[in-house]
């Protein structure tokens, strides 16, 4: 009983926010209220989800392909790079294909580009998706 009184007291004095804010947290927004950030993200994904998946996959492929092309063009020997890092003491790299090692290095480089790629794709997806829908 005391806990309920304390909770009611906190609600009455605004310590937990207004009743409208509590309704927003419970998932039943007041009429005319702006949707929450999560609701906006969910509706955006619902509207642009398939396009986002294709667009993000293409952006990742471009990042990966560019990194792999740059590594190949520069003549980087991934196996020798791993040996210089001391990998030979732990793993036998004698039977590894340089092509696949370079692909792994390119994947790591592409993953490091994620802080640039993901915000760019998220920011441009709605506009590009709507433009393609109008066109198609």
Automatic annotation (TrEMBL):
It comes from Coccolithus braarudii. Keywords: Membrane, Transmembrane, Transmembrane helix. This is DUF1279 domain-containing protein. The keyword Transmembrane helix applies. GO terms for cellular component: mitochondrion. InterPro entries: FAM210A/B-like, FAM210A/B-like_dom. It comes from the Eukaryota. Coiled coil: none annotated. The chain crosses the membrane at residues 53-76. The keyword Transmembrane helix applies.
């Amino acid at each position: 009983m005391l806990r309920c009184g304390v909770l009611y007291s906190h609600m009455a004095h605004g310590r937990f926010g207004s009743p409208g804010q509590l309704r927003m947290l419970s998932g039943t927004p007041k009429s005319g209220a702006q949707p929450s950030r999560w609701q906006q993200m969910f509706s955006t994904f619902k509207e642009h989800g398939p396009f986002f998946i294709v667009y993000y996959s293409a952006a990742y492929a471009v990042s990966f392909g560019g990194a792999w092309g740059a590594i190949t063009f520069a003549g980087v020997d991934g196996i020798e790079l791993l040996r210089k890092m001391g990998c030979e003491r732990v793993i036998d790299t004698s039977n590894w294909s340089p092509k696949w090692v370079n692909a792994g290095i390119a994947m790591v480089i592409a993953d490091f580009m994620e802080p640039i790629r993901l915000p760019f794709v998220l920011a441009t997806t709605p506009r590009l998706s709507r433009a393609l829908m109008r066109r198609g």
